[in-house]
Amino acid sequence: MGHTIEDVIQSDLDVMSGKPVVRGTRITVELILEKVAAGESIEQIQSEHPHLTIEQIRVALEYIMSPGNRTG
After folding, report:
1. What CATH number is attached to the domain comprising 58?
2. Are 37 and 63 spatial neighbours (Cβ–Cβ below 8 Å)?
3. Count of H-run helices and E-run strands, the chain
4. Cα three-residue angle 63-44-18, rounded to 5 degrees
5. Which of 12, 15, 16, 40 is nearest to 61 (CA)?
6. Boundaries of domain holding 53
7. What is the DSSP letter of 72?
8. Which residue among 4, 35, 67, 69 is least packed, with the fewest CB closer than 10 Å?
9. What percentage of the chain has pLDDT greater than the value 70?
10. DSSP secondary structure string, 7-35?
11. Do 17 and 42 meet the contact criterion of CB atoms below 8 Å apart?
């Protein structure tokens, strides 16, 4: 079943200085954006970070595209 942005993305001042991260990790939304901008596919990102699911990566990208959200 699909997860919402709130299920997947969190911002906590105690984790990565409050940057949005994939919940339960220290993987920032900004890092995912940088990897996509560098030409990596979702599948490549997932293979480099096997604890992330394809859906979590997609939700992070959805978060990036949401109006008013910043990555850092």
Report:
1. 1.10.10.10
2. no
3. 4, 2
4. 35
5. 40
6. 5-65
7. -
8. 67
9. 94
10. HHEE-BTTBGGG--EETTS--BHHHHHHH
11. no
Token duo for residue 66: 């949401």
Q: Is 71 part of any domain?
A: no
pLDDT at position 71: 58
Whether 72 is in a domain gets the answer: no
- 41 within 8 A of 63, measured Cβ to Cβ: no
Both tokens assigned to 61 = 């990208």
The total number of structural domains that make up the chain: 1
Residue 70 located in a structural domain? no
Structure tokens at 49: 């970070």
Q: Strand 21-22 vs strand 9-10: parallel, antiparallel, or unpaired?
A: antiparallel
- For the segment 5-24, the average pLDDT, to the nearest whole number, is 95
Question: Could you report how far apart the first and last alpha carbons of the chain are, in Å?
Answer: 29
Q: Does residue 37 lie in a domain region?
A: yes
